[in-house]
Amino acid sequence: MKLYRRENYLRKIRGFYHETGLIKVITGIRRCGKSCLMQTIVDELREDGIPAENITYINLDKRGFKSIKTPVQLEATIEQLCTADGIK
Description:
Layout: H1 7-13, H2 34-47, H3 71-81
C-alpha cells in the first residue's frame, strides 16, 4: 500500500525521532491516519539507515496482539520482540 507522506505532521515530529529520553504520543480520532503516520515514520527511519531489527511496530488491531490490554502485557510483548542491540 502506498502511503501519503503527511509532511506537516512529519515535520513536527522529525526532531524527536532520535530523542530517547522522551515518550512520543500520537493521538487522534478513530481512522484519522495515526497508524499510517507511524508506518511513514518507520519508513523514514529505515531510509535514515536504522536497521529494521531496531524498529518494532506493533499493530494492536492485528489478531496476534488483540489480547494486549495492560501496560504490563504491552511491555512484555515489546521485550519479546526487541532482541536487537542498541536504541530501538
